[in-house]
Amino acid sequence: MPVGLFRVCLLVITAIVNHPLFFPKENGTVPESTEEIIQKMKEREESLRLEQLRLEQEIADQEATQKALEKAAVVVEESKEEKVRWDMWTALSMVIFLLIELWRQDFQEGNWQDIGGEEDDMAVLGKAFKGVAFPNKAVLASFYEKRILGTTGDMARMREMVEGFADDLLEALRSVCNRDADMEVEDCMGVGSMYENWRVRKPFVCDLIVPFAPPEPYCFRCQTWCSGDSFPPDEQGYGTIKVCRADEDTAGCICDKTKLGEDMLCLLHSQGGSTRPSSEMEDLLCFKNTQYLDADQVMKWFQIAVTKAWNRISHKYEFDLSFSLLDSPGALKIKFKSGKSIAFNLTPVVQYENSDVYFISHFPRSSLAADIPSSTHWFLTFAVYERRFIQLVSKTLPANACHVSCLQILSFLHGKQCSLTGPSGLTNYHLKTVLLHLLQARPSQDWAPEKLEARLQDMLKFLEKCLHEKKLYHFFIGNGNVPAELGFPIVFQRAEPLNLFRPFVLRRDIYRKMVDTFHEMLRNMSALINEYTVHIPLAHTNGIRKEPL
What pLDDT digit, counting tens, does each position of 139-187 carry? Predict the structure, then answer.
């Protein structure tokens, strides 16, 4: 009991002693602690507010990012859909292009043979033929008999005389040349209208080509635009001729294709064999500092050699020989004491591999090679195969077929028109190309002699179509239907077709002149033919109908 009272009293005393009212000075810090707490609470509240703002900003940024990602996803999806649509259009365009290309190839390989084949197509003529009176069969037959047939005998006698003299001249040329250093000349060959029997206009000019080869141990290596290497469009139809040693093979070595440094040596070719002196290559008629045959150098050499050969044999003949045209280095003229003269062209050529395709240095009296890229570029001529094709087809045609007559009449009309209005870009070679295409397109029976009028109309319509489209393709290049009997090189059959009218696409003045000349020829056709036509009896003229085409 006393112990319990003592504990209670001790507790009361302790409480009284520790009461804050008894010690005001010691407990004066209590209000200050409260203000600090309040201040800290305010600071905490401010920090929380700032944190809230930061979090709200982050949330807004995340929402904006999410919207941007969703928008980007939509754009990507739309681009994918657009790409799919574009790919579909691209694929469709490619299919259409391939169909057009296949149709074009079929057209060139023979499907275009229907041109002029249907009577409806034959009756529909172009604007150029409106109002043109076309001579009928009787007038054409009379014109052909009077103006053209009489020239056939003259051509035969002239060919015989020129060929005999050319053989003698080339034999003399071989004798004056150095067999160890000069070019080796082969026998000449006759090509062109005089040897295809369709030349009608005087003066008659024989075209002879003379193949030549380099002396041993050299050889020619020919490269054409369709041999695999890239050629610019303006060099299609041309090729280059490289002079190499017969035992030299540069196809697999880069030393001939790239410039090696002064401190580098080709291990495949010796120093003496890989680099020949410039003077030696120039002696081989190459362009300066190259191994490529120079057409200008060849013609200079040939003119000098022909002059030496003529000096050796001139005493045997009673006429003079001279070069007739400065712009045609191979143009020669025989002048008799009576004043008469005979002109012929003797042009050096290089054989392409083992075929009858030849690289020709210059085209006499022709604009086919008027813009040769350089003197190391040689144009290819297929004249031998053209002559063989005409001979081959002629064997399958009816007797007295009218194919040559059509070409002769058209050539005569064109020549007469050019004499009135001046020369144009249209040449006799273009006219012959038209005939070659139609000979392949039409059946043999369509060339019977009584169908001369219809076939002449076909040629004029075909030519008008080509002029309108500015497209006249070379007959042999790109033509897969060349008869196998000709032995024509397959590399040219597989080549892209060569448009003979391509030079006129950019030269609008020449093209305009060519079209105007064609239209004038059509309008003057009846007058030109009637001028050389014998009088037809009244009984015949009553049956002549001159209907506009």
Answer: 888 888 887 876 666 788 899 999 999 999 999 999 998 777 788 999 9
Count of beta carbons in the 10 Å neighbourhood of residue 174: 14
Q: Which pLDDT score, from 0 to 100, does residue 249 have?
A: 56
Maximal CA-CA distance, the chain: 185
> What are the tens digits of pLDDT across the range 488-515?
999 999 999 999 998 888 888 889 999 9
Distance linking the first and last C-alpha atoms of the chain: 157
**CA pair distance 105, 117, nearest whole angstrom:** 19
Domain hosting 349: range is 121-247+281-534
Cβ proximity of 294 and 286 under 8 Å: yes
Look at the chain and count its residues.
Answer: 549
- Name the CA radius of gyration of the chain, rounded: 46
* Nearest CA among 451, 433, 545, 408 for reference residue 499: 433
Q: Report the C-alpha gap between 461 and 438 in whole angstroms.
A: 11
Sorting pLDDT into bands at 50, 70 and 90, what band is 27? very low
Average pLDDT over residues 52-75: 82
Residue 234's CATH number = 3.30.460.90
Q: 64: alpha, beta or left, given left = phi > 0 and alpha = psi -120 to 50?
A: alpha
**Measured CA angle at 465 (ends 464, 468), to 5 deg:** 85
Q: Is residue 326 part of a domain?
A: yes
In a domain, 16, yes or no: no
Q: What is the pLDDT of residues 204-216, one digit of tens each?
A: 899 999 999 998 8
**Buried b / exposed e along 328-353 (16+ C-beta atoms within 10 A):** bbbbbbbeeeeeeebbbbbbbbbbbe
Cis peptide before 203 (omega within 30 of 0): yes
pTM recorded for the entire structure: 0.70
- The phi, psi pair for 323, rounded to 5°, reads -85, 125
CA distances from 204 to 162, 207, 210 (A): 11, 10, 20
Summarize the confidence of residues 406-417 as an average pLDDT.
92
Q: Which residues 6+ apart lie within 8 Å of 267 measured at CB?
A: none
- Whether 438 maps to a domain, the answer reads yes
C-beta atoms surrounding 45 within 10 Å: 10
Q: pLDDT tens digit string along 106-151?
A: 554 443 333 334 333 333 345 566 667 778 888 888 888 887 876 6
Q: How many domains are contained in the chain?
A: 1
Q: Is 497 exposed, middle or buried (0-12, 13-18, 19+ CB in 10 A)?
A: middle
CB atoms within 10 A of CB 215: 15
The C-alpha angle 114, 116, 122, rounded to 5 degrees, equals 130
Spatial distance between the Cα atoms of 526 and 369, rounded to a whole number of angstroms:
33
What is the Cα–Cα distance from 321 to 311, expressed in whole angstroms? 10
If phi > 0 it is left, if psi is from -120 to 50 it is alpha, else beta; for residue 207 that is beta
